[in-house]
């Protein structure tokens, strides 16, 4: 079964392996298969589910609602997000303005068929809206009981500090940040993680397997496997392209004997690795088939020894991105519509 961790400086626990439906629900797989994977997640002990209104332009939230139908609401932790364009993508269907946040939470609750979400997240930082306006809107949502906790995604260390201070003034707290983090993408370690530890903010990390590259199935000098994420634009092919360099794929192959030494599969090693960071509350995983989750959840509770962690660092030396300046290049400087 899956272990639990506290989310930030709160009394709220989440499953350290959390099910995310970014590129699967209403996109990569048919609804029946998506529902089956959610049921497999529940059977494996995962009770925390992460989605966003922008996934499949709101349809992913509806699929998740269908999959969770009949489950005890108090036994689930449901997360969603707001920021990216949705619906007809009009001038106010985007960003973190008071209007879009209010419309966003109401739409998400309707689609998810719940009275509240456990965690409502700013999907990016909005440079075009005053931060005070955004945080006041989140404070109102918490007071209205529509969200129990507030988090963000891909904010810089400075943005976390400013948001945390405003939240405290308004009577609530930021408990989480959702960045990309994996053995290959470690940019949060330099500034974001230290600031978060100081502020009482946890990381909920996405792409712990580097879009599947850390599974080891992509081989240097070989065509990408048919049916893999790298061949499907709807499954995030554009995100994986940056990792499909021979020097990266060669380095990843060097992890195979290390995984075998630890008695783990490559996906288990990748997920266990991010969970060694105590500032990480949860690793987000997806699945297109139920059996994938049976392997994934075995990473929960795994302790990687110091010599193994050092060997992983050495195997990926020169190909892992550790530049903290890259945290400043994620949120768009202007809205997309």
TrEMBL record:
<feature type="domain" description="NADP-dependent oxidoreductase">
    <location>
        <begin position="17"/>
        <end position="315"/>
    </location>
</feature>
<keyword id="KW-0521">NADP</keyword>
<protein>
    <submittedName>
        <fullName>Aldo/keto reductase family protein</fullName>
    </submittedName>
</protein>
<dbReference type="GO" id="GO:0016491">
    <property type="term" value="F:oxidoreductase activity"/>
</dbReference>
<dbReference type="InterPro" id="IPR023210">
    <property type="entry name" value="NADP_OxRdtase_dom"/>
</dbReference>
<dbReference type="InterPro" id="IPR005399">
    <property type="entry name" value="K_chnl_volt-dep_bsu_KCNAB-rel"/>
</dbReference>
<dbReference type="InterPro" id="IPR036812">
    <property type="entry name" value="NAD(P)_OxRdtase_dom_sf"/>
</dbReference>
<keyword id="KW-0560">Oxidoreductase</keyword>
<comment type="similarity">
    <text>Belongs to the shaker potassium channel beta subunit family.</text>
</comment>
<dbReference type="Pfam" id="PF00248">
    <property type="entry name" value="Aldo_ket_red"/>
</dbReference>
<dbReference type="GO" id="GO:0005829">
    <property type="term" value="C:cytosol"/>
</dbReference>
């Amino acid at each position: 079964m899956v272990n639990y961790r506290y989310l930030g400086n709160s009394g709220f626990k989440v499953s350290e392996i959390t099910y995310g439906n970014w590129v699967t629900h209403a996109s990569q797989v048919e609804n029946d298969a998506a529902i089956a994977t959610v049921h497999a997640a529940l059977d494996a002990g995962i009770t925390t589910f992460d989605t966003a209104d922008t996934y499949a332009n709101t349809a992913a939230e509806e699929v998740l609602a269908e999959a969770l139908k009949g489950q005890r609401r108090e036994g689930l932790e449901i997360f969603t997000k707001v920021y990216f364009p949705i619906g007809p993508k009009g001038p106010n269907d985007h960003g973190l303005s008071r209007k879009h946040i209010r419309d966003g939470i109401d739409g998400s609750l309707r689609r998810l068929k719940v009275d509240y979400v456990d965690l409502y997240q700013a999907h990016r930082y909005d440079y075009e809206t005053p931060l005070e306006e955004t945080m006041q809107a989140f404070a109102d949502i918490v007071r209205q009981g529509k969200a129990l906790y507030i988090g963000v995604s891909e904010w810089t260390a400075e943005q976390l500090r400013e948001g945390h201070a405003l939240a405290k003034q308004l009577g609530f707290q930021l408990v989480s940040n959702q960045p990309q983090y994996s053995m290959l993408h470690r940019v949060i370690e330099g500034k974001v993680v230290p600031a978060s530890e100081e502020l009482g903010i946890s990381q909920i990390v996405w792409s712990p397997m580097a879009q599947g590259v850390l599974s080891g199935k992509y081989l240097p000098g070989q065509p990408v496997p048919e049916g893999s994420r790298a061949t499907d634009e709807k499954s995030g092919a554009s995100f994986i392209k940056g990792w499909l360099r021979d020097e990266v794929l060669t380095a990843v192959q060097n992890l195979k004997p290390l995984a075998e030494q630890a008695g783990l599969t490559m996906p288990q090693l990748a997920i266990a690795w991010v969970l060694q960071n105590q500032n990480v509350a949860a690793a987000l995983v997806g699945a297109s088939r139920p059996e994938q989750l049976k392997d994934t959840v075995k990473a929960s509770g795994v302790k990687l020894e110091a010599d193994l962690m050092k060997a992983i660092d050495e195997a990926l030396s020169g190909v892992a991105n550790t530049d903290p300046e890259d945290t400043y290049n994620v949120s768009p400087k202007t809205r997309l519509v």
